[in-house]
Amino acid sequence: MAIKHEAELYAPLKAFFELHGYIVKGEVRNCDLVGMKEGENEPLIVEMKKTFNLALLLQGLERLKMSSNVYLAVEKSRAKKGAVNQRWTELRGLCLKLGLGLITVTFYKTKSPFVEVLCEPGEESGFGRNAPRRRERLLMEFRERSGDYNTGGVTRAKLVTAYREKALRVAAAVSRACEAQEAEAFSAGYKKASKNAKKNAGPKPGVSPASVRDVSGVGSAAAILQRNYYGWFARVERGRYVLTEAGRLALNDYAAVLETHAGTERLPLPLPINR
User: Residue 65 and residue 131: Cα distance in Å, rounded?
Assistant: First the structure.
């Protein structure tokens, strides 16, 4: 059973490495699959392709600059007799010389995929790490993500990065603030009709970055609002922001990401309104 897309390799590989004690996340800083094990500082990196080719090999060598624990993963087809991806003995020997691990995934029609490790990564190769900053950025991005919202190997898809997660939390805080303002403005309008109402009961439009930071728990909330990288926020006056239509759509599209923080974040609390 041949696969159509390399992304189909992700689920069985994720399950395989989770059984071996790894926390796995997909598409972390252009790496198809990244895993971390408790007590270890060396990240697991897996690059996937439908078949073994030069592009996959070059990717693997590039990843060795960030970690010595790098695997190449391909489908093991039972149908292609004599094809290059059937020369597993030679390919295994090549990966061993370069210090790369090699994994095959065999798919069946009626049973679960079979993951087989043909060789483990080694440290004997001359392709040692020489990109410590890239490695640290990879580890930081991995730690900053609250969960695994991406499928490794997927192309032309919007990835849920650590930055997008923070922007979503900021958007959720702004949304709740605006809802609270609308409710208070409605109440103020009702009171204004009475004899004892204040003349200017309505709050200022928008919400301040400081209030968003305090409620969302995102320290860089002000920078996210000001840069407006995704077009989710609009400045109505100096230091006051509201959510755009694109921001409201994003909250709906990425609702599953926000649910991860529902039990731990302070978003459910009402946001204070500055007058």
Answer: 5
- Is 128 in a helix, a strand, or coil? coil
d(CA 146, CA 175): 21
pTM: 0.62
Burial 167-197 (b: 16+ CB within 10 A, else e): bbbbbbbbbbbbebbeeeeeeeeeeeeeeee
Model pLDDT for residues 51-89, shown as the tens digit of each residue: 999 999 999 999 999 999 999 999 988 765 555 556 888
* Confidence label for 268 from pLDDT (cuts 50, 70 and 90): very low
Residue 5 has phi, psi (to 5 degrees) of: -135, 145
Q: Please give the DSSP secondary-structure letter assigned to residue 270.
A: P
Strands (E) across the chain are located at 22-28, 31-37, 44-49, 70-75, 101-106, 114-119, 233-237, 240-243
DSSP state, 8?
G
Residue 30's pLDDT band (boundaries 50, 70, 90)?
Answer: confident
Helix ranges (H only) for 8-87 are: 10-19, 54-63
- Amino acid letter at 267? L
